[in-house]
Amino acid sequence: MKFGAVPTKNAAGAILAHSMAVPSGRISKGTLLMADHLEVLTKAGHDSVTVARLEAHDVEENAAATTLAQALVPDPQGQHLRVAAAGAGRVNLYAVGPGIVDLDEGRIHQINASDPMITIATLPPFARVDPGTMVATIKIIAYAVPQSALQTATDQADGAIRVQPPVFDRAMLIETQVGSESPPDKGYRSMAERLDRLGLELADRVVVPHAIEPLSDAVDQYRGDVLFLLTASATSDTYDVAPEAVRQAGGVVTAYGMPVDPGNLLFFGKLDHKPVIGLPGCARSPALNGADWVLERLLCGQALDQSDIALMGVGGLLKEIPTRPRPRRARMAESQDT
User: Fold this and answer.
1) Which residues pair with 228 in a beta bridge?
2) From CA 84, how far away is CA 76, in angstroms rounded?
């Protein structure tokens, strides 16, 4: 592509690089200049204009963006994405349903390294999306790119991004209580809202005493897709009440604890090959916490183990919580005083 200022009289067939003021208004950048444009520009006193001229080996910006989008999303239905029409060298990709973003980071990096004028920006890996959420935007910065550079980019693109939808339909929440008074239902309501965003139905609330035997009996009677446990007392060890109840019911515990705050005291495993997630107390709040990262991935069919959880610490400080009984700042001040 050739770019630069040329005499207005010689600009026919070139692309206007910058918007120009004329008596009738403006001629927008990106306009393919024709004879009538040149006449208007000359009468307005513009003796020269900055233009881009495509060469034989160049691909125009909208065509290039569309080509890359088609390479990234060869199967829109299977990838659960909608590819928008190109405009000004840009094509946006939108989720068509709820789920999480599943992408190949290495190939996205290779696409962006193929040429400075070829770019794709995405949501973070595993980001939760709703129908209509923009998942990625492809932008060709220049008015055209070399065919060879576009070919390099598309060679890396095939299916590198998709939305992974939920693979379950129905979940159950078992809560425990200490004493005879049933706990408030805010935990149930918060979980129902979380699951509704992913298209899952939450069964009626179940509350049992906070002890291994009654909780194990409730777990054993569970029949459904996904089971959540929310205990009245925090799960402080992998052999505490809730994990032991899962094991006693015939399940397994895959992971305990996570380097995400809030959300440290989480565990998960399986019962009859279906996910069981022991929720931290912060799941009673609708605010983002580590449980969201785990349940979204498990509900969308992603396999997780302790090593995956260990990688969540970078970026895992989600929010300072000053309303805790002993906020971190107060503890820090106390430690400095002593």
Assistant:
1) 173, 277
2) 11
Cα distance between residue 206 and residue 229, in whole Å: 10
Q: CATH for 2-53?
A: 3.90.105.10
- The tokens for 157 are 């693109």
Q: Is 276 helix (H, G, I), strand (E, B) or coil?
A: strand
- Cα gap 263→282, rounded to integer Å: 6
Q: Residue 180 has what pLDDT?
A: 84
- From residue 280, give the alpha-carbon distance in Å to each of 206, 241, 256, 333: 17, 13, 11, 27
- Predicted TM-score (pTM) of the model is 0.88
How many whole angstroms from its chain centre is CA 245? Answer: 34
The confidence score (pLDDT) of residue 134 equals 98
Return the sign of the alpha-carbon dihedral for residues 119, 121, 125, 126: negative
Residue 60 bridge partners (DSSP): 144
Q: Residue ranges of the domains in the chain? A: 2-53, 58-164, 170-310
> What average pLDDT does this structure show over 57-81?
97
Give strand pairing partners of 145.
59
| pLDDT at residue 320 is higher than 80 | no
Q: Which CATH superfamily is domain 170-310 in?
A: MoaB/Mog-like domain (3.40.980.10)
User: What is the distance between the alpha carbons of residues 139 and 118, in angstroms, rounded to a whole number?
Assistant: 6
- Domain 58-164 listed as CATH 1.10.10.10: no
User: What percentage of the chain has pLDDT greater than the value 90?
Assistant: 90
104 pLDDT above the threshold of 50: yes
